[in-house]
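Example record

The entry below shows one chain as it appears in the dataset: sequence first, then C-alpha cells.
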Amino acid sequence: MITERVAENLYILDTGMLGLERYGALYILKAPKPAIIETGFSHTLEKTLQALDELRVRREDVAYIMPTHVHLDHAGGTGHLAEACPNAKVIVHEQGAPHLIDPTKLLESVQRAVGPMFPFYGTLKPTPKERVLPVHGGEVFNLGNGYEIEVIAAPGHAPHQVCFFERRLRGLFTADAAGIYRPWGAGLLLTTPPPAFHLEQSLETLARLKALQPKLLLYTHWGAHTDISLLDQCAHMLQHWVSEIEHAKKTLKDDQAVKEHFVQKEAPLLSAHYPELILRGEIEMNVQGVLLYLKRFRGIN
C-alpha cells in the first residue's frame, strides 16, 4: 500500500517532497465525487495515479482537484493531474487561478525564491482555463454521502491560499497556514516565504481556523493530527519569529548578515532532519519572507 487511511474514506499519500519521507502529502477523499486535495510537485503524478488505482478510484471519476495554493509543492502537479483526470474541476483561489492557466510568471518567482533548490521543484503544466473554478472562500462542494468541503480563505502565508474544511469528518486541510508539523522530526516549524508573507493576516487566518472547531488537522507537511492546540502554538511562534528577525535586522542592518545569523542559529537544531542544501535554503527563504514583510509593512529597510 502506498496510501494510508487517516479517517473514514480519507487517504494520505507521501509525495516524497525534496527526497524526504513524510514531508509532503496529498489527500484523496474517496466519496461518490472523489476529490484530491493538494497535488505535490509535477513529478508526483505517477505516484498519484498509482494511488488512485490502489483505491479503485477511476481517473475519469475524479470530480475535484483542490490545491490549497499555487506554490509548487502544493500545486505543481495540477496541470498533469487534470490531463490524467479529464472530468475533474480544479478548485483554486481566484488570485492563484491565472498562474495555473499560464504558469510562466509563477515559475520565475519560484526560481527567485528557492534559488539552488529549484531543480527539486519540478515544473508546472498549464491547466486549461475551462477546467479551472476560481474561489475566494465560503464556497461549499458536495461530494455525496454527507461529505462536504468548505473553502476557507486563509491569507498570510500567501494571499491566494485557502484551507479546506470537510464538514462530516470536521477535518481541516491546513495548507501552510498552521506551519509544518512532524512530531517524529523537528516538531512544529514555521513557513514564511517571500514574496507575500504577512504576519497579521496569518494570525487572523489561524483564529478563523480555530473558530471552525476542527477535530482533525490534515497537514500537507505532514499528516493527520488531533492536537488542535497546534493552531495557537503556531500563532505564538509566528509572533516570536517576526520579533526576532526584526531585532536582528535593526542590529545587523544587512539582509544577508541577518540570514546568515539565523542559518547559524537554526541549522544545528534541524540538521538531523534535513540535508544541508535544503536546510540552508529553507531557513534563508523563511527569513527573506519576513524581511520583505518588515520592509513593506513596518518600514524597516
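Notes for this example: Residues 42 and 77 are 4 Å apart (CA to CA). Residues 230-252 form the longest helix (23 residues).
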